[in-house]
């Protein structure tokens, strides 16, 4: 009986193969193993290699499976899965499928007669949003980043392979995550200029989705992202409390993954610590490669400093470089901030860069203890910088100087306190979370194009680090 039942399953596989692409069949159906068929209860038991495969089958192919099994085994067949949950310890879980369950379908990929939105772009015109200065040539290799860098370079040179997809990079602030994922994207664009590569922060993605929801153009939003060949998303921990944004990205992820497109994600923590993120997303994040970026050690900090100094044509003594590398707490951002501050001090006061000046700058620029910053600390420092009062910033006034100080306060609070946007909004004049998200996006966009504003932000950060 088992032989004939197995043959029936082989017939089912043949029918399935005729109704899906070769890649879809090899990815989702070929790994399925036939276990048994109980004719008295009409129960078919299949083994799938992971919870991820089970979830994907149930969410995308339940109708196809139902039709095929009815045709081959007859009406009333009950499908159950034995899901391998821990291959090392040979642990499995038997789950009964529910073909009648309403499955949330991915958004359609065809446009029909829908009018284009501002998100739409012709393939040759898409702006990748990559930083051209963040390349592998400027990403110094060390013990703390050797594995992620090597794999990232391999992915960049062979983006069409399905290995290590998605690539999930995590690590503390200042370890080089943004640089590495930009470097991967830049290298892909260099080698494969026809590919649609897009880098985007999780916060900006959320803003775009919110705007699409308000304009009732969510389908166009998702359709656009489903045309991307290499999608790079930074700081996805921002979505931990954004359920609707997660749901939209879930559909985009599924479509890109199924069609062999490359997905690269970055976060300040591993998937297991992304509390509030849907389990169905976490299983997908974990199905590729999870790579940790550690803070650079003193030697790597020294090499990073030397490269920046040579690139910028600066003249800084070796003893000062060693001192900065030793005291900058293993943060690339701190290293860059110290160098910028040294340069500013030397120009303003017409003094040479020596150890005495370095000690003075380090004292103001680098955190010396673990006392956390509060939103009040940040607002006070920002208000002092812009010469406004905290009461004015918390008010409903739309005066330009108040708006700028308010947006900068929200941006820095989001960056340094790790509070949810809703909480920050309440502390900054009783705003809602969407105002915080929009403010952070405005600051980020301005920093990209306004060097003077970028320097002001760095100056504020250097000021309040002393309070930590």
Key features of this structure:
20 helices, elongated, 468 residues, five-stranded parallel beta sheet, alpha/beta
Please provide a written account of the structure:
- Strand 7 (230-234), helix 9 (243-258) and strand 8 form a beta-alpha-beta unit.
- The chain is 52% helix and 11% strand.
- By secondary structure, the chain is α/β, with parallel strands linked by helices.
Brief characterization of the structure:
The chain is an alpha/beta fold.
Total of helices:
20
Low-confidence stretches: 99-124
Alpha-carbon Rg, integer: 26 Å
Largest sheet descriptor:
5 strands, parallel
Instruction: Give the overall shape, derived from the CA principal axes.
Output: elongated
In terms of quaternary structure, what is this?
single chain
Order of helices and strands: HHEEHHEEHEHEHHEHEHEHHHHHHHHHH
Structural class: alpha/beta
Number of strands: 9
What is the beta-strand fraction?
5-15%
Mean pLDDT figure: 81
First-last Cα distance: 72 Å
Helical amount among residues, as a percent range? 40-55%
Side by side, the strands of the main sheet go 6-7-8-5-9
């Amino acid at each position: 009986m088992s032989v004939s039942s197995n043959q029936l399953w082989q017939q089912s596989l043949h029918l399935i193969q005729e109704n899906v692409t070769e890649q879809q069949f090899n990815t989702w159906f070929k790994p399925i193993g036939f276990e048994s068929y109980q004719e008295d209860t009409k129960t078919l038991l299949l083994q799938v290699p992971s919870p991820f495969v089970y979830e994907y089958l149930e969410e995308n192919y339940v109708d196809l499976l139902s039709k095929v099994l009815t045709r081959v085994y007859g009406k009333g067949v009950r499908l159950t899965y034995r899901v391998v949950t821990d291959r090392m310890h040979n642990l499995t879980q038997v789950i009964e499928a529910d073909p009648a369950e309403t499955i949330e379908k991915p958004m359609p990929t065809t446009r029909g007669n829908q009018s284009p939105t501002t998100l739409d772009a012709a393939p040759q015109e898409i702006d990748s949003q990559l930083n051209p200065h963040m390349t592998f040539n400027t990403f110094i290799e060390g013990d703390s980043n050797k594995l992620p860098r090597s794999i990232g370079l391999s992915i960049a040179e062979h983006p069409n392979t399905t290995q290590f997809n998605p690539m999930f990079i995590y690590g503390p602030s200042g370890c080089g995550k943004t640089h590495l994922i930009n470097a991967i994207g830049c290298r892909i664009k260099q080698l494969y200029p026809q590919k649609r590569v897009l880098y985007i922060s999780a916060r900006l993605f959320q803003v775009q989705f919110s705007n699409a929801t308000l304009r009732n153009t969510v389908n166009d939003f998702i359709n656009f992202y489903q045309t991307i060949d290499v999608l790079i998303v930074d700081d996805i921990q921002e979505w931990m409390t954004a359920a609707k944004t997660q749901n939209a990205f879930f559909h985009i992820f599924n479509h890109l993954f199924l069609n062999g497109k490359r997905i690269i994600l970055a976060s300040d923590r591993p998937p297991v610590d992304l509390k509030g993120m849907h389990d169905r997303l976490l299983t997908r994040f974990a199905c590729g490669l999870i790579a940790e970026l550690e803070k650079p050690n003193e030697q790597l900090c020294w090499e990073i400093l030397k490269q920046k100094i040579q690139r910028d044509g600066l003249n800084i003594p070796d003893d000062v470089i060693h001192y900065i590398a030793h005291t900058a707490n293993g943060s690339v951002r701190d290293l860059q901030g110290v160098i910028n501050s040294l340069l500013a001090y030397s120009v303003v006061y017409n003094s040479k860069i020596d150890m005495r000046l370095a000690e003075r700058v380090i004292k103001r620029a680098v955190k010396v203890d673990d006392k956390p910053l509060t939103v009040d600390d940040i607002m006070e420092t920002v208000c002092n910088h812009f010469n406004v009062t905290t009461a004015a910033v918390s008010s409903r006034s739309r005066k330009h100087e108040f708006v700028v100080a308010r947006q900068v306060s929200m941006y820095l609070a989001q960056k340094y306190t790790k509070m949810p946007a809703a909480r920050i909004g309440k502390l900054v004049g009783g705003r809602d979370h969407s105002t915080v998200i929009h403010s952070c996006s405005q600051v980020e966009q301005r920093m990209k194009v306004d060097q003077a504003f970028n320097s002001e932000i760095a100056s504020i950060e250097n000021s309040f680090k002393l309070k930590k």
